[in-house]
Amino acid sequence: MYSVIVVPPSCERPGSQIRIAAGERLAFGRAAPESGLTVAHPGVPRNAGEITAHQSFWLLSNHSADQTYVVENPEGAGEHVKVSPGRLDAPIPFEFSRVVLPAAGDLLRFDVWAPRHRYRPRGAVPSPGAATAPAFALDRTTRYYAVLAALCEPRLRAEPHAPLPTVGQVTERLRPNWPTVSRSAVHWNIDYLAVKLGLRPGPEAADAGPRLNGKKETLVSLALRFDLVGEDDLIVLGPLPSGAAR
Amino acid sequence: MTAGHPHAVPVPAGYRVGSWEVREPLASGAFGTVYAARRTGGGEPDQPRQAALKFLPTGTHTPRRLRHLRELADREVDLLRRLRSPRLIRMYDVLTVDDPALPELDGATVLVLEQAEGSLEELLRRTPVPGSGPALLAQVCEGLHQLHHAGWVHGDLKPGNVLLMKDGSVRLADFNMAAELEGTHAYSPAFSTPDYTPPELLWPELGERGRQIRPTADIWAFGVLAHLVLTDSYPLPGGSTDARCDAAVRYARGTEELRLSPRLPEAWREIVTDCLARSHDLRAAHDSASLLRRAEQAAGEARSARLPRLRPRRPRRSAWVATLAGTLAATAAAVAVTYATLRDDGPTYGYHRCPAGSVCFFSEEFGNGEMCDWADDDPDWLSGDETCAWTRDRPVRSIFNNGVEAPGRGGVAYYRGTDFTAAGIDRTRMEQRTGCTSMRQQGNLAGTYAPRSHEWVPNC
């Protein structure tokens, strides 16, 4: 029931992500309380700021005396929000954010995800809230959506039981529209989708081998079953490369 | 009317499906469109002349799109084929459109359903806090009980999915999310209406089969619905769905208390609180059978009591609704309103005006006309604190004992004489009284006399 996930710098494992629920606060700084996020750098104030989860978005308070924090949208082509010193509870509108703290010449970063952003179902008009809506809402302009579309593409275009593409094939398929894509970026987005869609960790989660494949399989079957990706949505991938085996 | 819904199905008026001729659209929901229809000739003899046709766009013109609609349609058909209960909308037939000339319609699934007058959502839009609310809620609860008892979970209970029939009775409808229990759980498609979704399912964990739901999800939704019907507000604070969901999560985590509206009648406060218990485990203590008992008691509703009609025939709508609202607002003492005059066909029932815990006598049949109500005994109807002046020169034609069961209170005995004594023809009777009506009974009387006194008795 969390609504915001804070990903500490160089966080490798989901276990070290910090999940905060609506209304909860998370302090960060050089000497953050035990429940907070410690940013160990001498240039960072002891109590540098606070993150508050609020509905589907979050608020940032800047407790430093003289440093402006910048919150970037890594997928937003330079889109960012500046939070000046002393500003309390500035709302941050991005689904993915990178908080940049200037510290004695260095720039320190950590990520904050807001996977509960909501979207109206395709084709629906705004309604006062009593509408039956899918439990998940995907932003069709994001990279995770492109990754999901690429995973679903063979089954949408060919037969329903086509094998799933490998991460390498997905990377190649995405490259025309996303030149900097890498295998690790694809992995990252698959993991994020699993978080966003609330996939129950399958029984295979414990053993490392087929884990990713199981996750991919579940994502694709959910996406197809609930029409999260349709044939029309494959447009986000751009045209099929010439000579593709179809 | 149908615009703006992703799965609206436009069907031209006059279109024929099976033996049905489509008329005007009635409503458009998240997954399909409902049209009024009339039977032309043929058809099964047990089918009505009018029905509602629900079109679900399961067509094949776009083979890879909307595949979840097939599943949602199958769920509804499956449930309605197997369950027939008085409080669930009745399905007469399932048809598939076979019309290659209209690719938009070809392959659509058509459910032939009992036609309703409207939905609870429409009633609430016109009349927030309807006086018939408690009685309606008791019937909604009855429907939930019938569903749960048969091993199903509704999964999307809300005012738009509660239909009101011509006779004012309630039917649950829209079973696209319904799921049959497999042990303690059912798997439901991952769709929901956030304002009616229990906090543990707001961001559900999903498996390949969808989300797991349990009957307590319907219990939560009933709590929200009851609060809305009785107070015109949601139980959780916030001006937007997001804010209310947020509050639901804080409440579920124990960081916030539930503050129900002070407008919530005392009899319902405990019921709503139990329905909105923080977690599945706490809610599971209150199954639909026990809730039904309590809701019926809170509504003071005899199981068989009938409800007011949702709306009159045109063009008298506004006048009738205004009269009804006015009538229902004034339940305090002896109310004298002429109720039956706007009636245009069949008996309209006025019993619902009788406050819970009271016995009510009416000047017309079926609970219509002027009403006198008492919570306690009255040794003389024509003098004292409470009088019932119209009985001086007019007879009582119907009665409703809407009392609450308690030791020593099983029925109401009435007498032609004051101070609970026999007078006139009473003396010739063995019981030495005019009559006696048991708890929750209602009906028409001979209509030739008016009592002068009544008292609560252990039983009739």
UniProtKB/TrEMBL annotation, chain A:
Organism superkingdom: Bacteria
The protein, known as: FHA domain-containing protein
Source organism of this protein record: Streptomyces lycii
Lineage per the UniProt record: Bacteria, Bacillati, Actinomycetota, Actinomycetes, Kitasatosporales
UniProtKB/TrEMBL annotation, chain B:
GO molecular function, one term: kinase activity
Top-rank taxon: Bacteria
TM ranges: 319-342
Residue ranges occupied by any Protein kinase domain in the UniProt entry: 20-310
Keywords, ordered alphabetically: Kinase, Membrane, Transferase, Transmembrane, Transmembrane helix
Transport recorded as keyword: no
Keyword Transferase attached: yes
PANTHER family cross-referenced by the UniProt entry: MITOGEN-ACTIVATED KINASE KINASE KINASE, SPORULATION-SPECIFIC PROTEIN 1
Protein name, per record: Protein kinase
Organism: Streptomyces lycii
Lineage of origin: Bacteria, Bacillati, Actinomycetota, Actinomycetes, Kitasatosporales
